[in-house]
Amino acid sequence: MDSLILSNRIKEKAKEIGFSLVGFCNTKPLEKEGDHLIEWLNRGYNAEMRWFERSIDKRIDPSLILPNAKSIIVLGLNYYNQINFTNQINKGKISKYALGKDYHSVMKSKMKILINFLKEQNFFGNYLSYVDSGPLMEKALAQKAGLGWIGKNTNLINRKIGSFFFIGCIITDIELVYDEIYLNYCGTCNKCIEACPTKALVEPYILDSNKCISYLTIEYRGEVLPQTLKGKFDNWVFGCDICQDICPWNKNSKKTDVVELYPMIDPYIDLEKENKISEEQFSLKYSRTSIKRAKYKGFLRNINFLIN
Ligand code: B12
């Protein structure tokens, strides 16, 4: 079957499965983005995320991931929930991306349905699917596949649906019709950079993770959070939405219709009460969400940083 008909079939099916965005790109090396990645690592902006250093070659050249790789199917899944966060006494905030079921499993199962569809259609290719933890620069590939552009807050933004969507990639050895690279629509706006309370967006398009509330509340494993940032966390306990909530391109964000991503926990937590939960209560309440990544100790550390 010619690759144009196949490409359109895949896009129809992807939308049917619930993906808001879908596009295709080739597996050629990401030269310019690779240079940015290396510059970013040399500046230590990956903080304690050492795993980056182990997979630079594949991140820059995705063709190294699958023999005879030709195409990448890039998918976007809307997770937006209309929560206009306000600061409340004794209340901590949980980022919108973590309120529903853990997105890694939701994305993986939806990508599996798409791969099974391709196999049923007798497209005997090889497929490897990744979401978040794979050796890929998902945002750079998504821009190349026409899903959106990497904004000054370093999130991928789409003009129609904004930036509150997850990205997943399927790398394959079947030929597809590739989409146009997405242009940049940030213009002279710097709202995200100005709004970040910890000044983590050190330059347009450059995020220093060492100062990022999202990094410090999710990925950082230190016993205590940096005292230099005390009082600047804007009551975030897990993740942070500031640089996205302020972005003008998110004013048209629509509520997700992916039921697994509907909030199953309260976006506000009672800090005093939650500070007393047991490890068992923590896993009972949060193990099906992305919050489990902070682990029990990290979660209590984040709460204590806000109340003490
Ligand atoms: C490491 C990581 C983080 C780190 C570092 C973030 C970062 N900017 O790198 C931390 C823990 C801080 C983080 C936070 C978040 N993350 Co995160 N994260 C990742 C991960 C695993 C790798 C990203 C990466 O490659 N970074 C390397 C650096 C160098 O890339 P970069 O910052 O994007 O910089 C690029 C451009 O800015 C450009 N660039 C650099 N310098 C310059 C200069 C100029 C002039 C120009 C034009 C360009 C340019 O080149 C770089 C390479 O393309 C991806 C999944 C994946 N495998 O790709 C998810 C991912 C990016 N994260 C995601 C999400 C949802 C988040 C949060 C929103 C969660 C939250 N609410 O707290 C926050 C957002 C914080 C932010 N403003 O970015 C989603 C983003 C979806 C989207 N629509 O963009 C992803 C894709 C996961 C997924 N599969 O859905 N994340």
Tell me the number of helical segments per DSSP (H or I, 4 or more residues long). 11
H and E string: HEHHEEHEHEEEHEEHEHEHHH
Q: Can you summarize the main beta sheet?
A: 4 strands, antiparallel
Total discrete domains? 2
Strand percentage, roughly?
Answer: 5-15%
Reading side by side through the largest sheet, how are the strands ordered?
1-2-7-4
Helicity level, as a percent range?
Answer: 25-40%
- Tell me the structural class: alpha+beta
Which ligands occur here?
A: cobalamin
Amino-to-carboxy terminus distance: 64 Å
Mean pLDDT: 96
The radius of gyration over CA amounts to 20 Å
Q: Name the poorly predicted regions.
A: none
Shape type: globular
Give a count of the beta strands, DSSP E runs of length 2 or more.
11
Task: State the main characteristics.
308 residues, alpha+beta, 2 domains, 4-stranded antiparallel β-sheet, 3-stranded mixed β-sheet, globular, binds cobalamin
Describe the structure.
The chain has 308 residues and is an alpha+beta fold. The chain folds into two domains: 3-80 and 100-172, no CATH class; 191-307, no CATH class. 31% of the residues lie in helices and 15% in strands. The protein has helices spanning 3-17, 31-42, 56-60, 103-120, 138-144, 191-195, 213-218, 242-245, 271-274, 279-286, 295-307; strands spanning 21-26, 71-78, 91-94, 127-130, 149-150, 156-157, 165-172, 201-203, 206-207, 236-238, 268-270. The chain has a four-stranded antiparallel beta sheet with strand order 1-2-7-4, sandwiched between helices. The mean pLDDT is 96. The structure holds cobalamin. Cobalamin (B12) binds next to helix 2, helix 5, strand 7, strand 9 and helix 7.
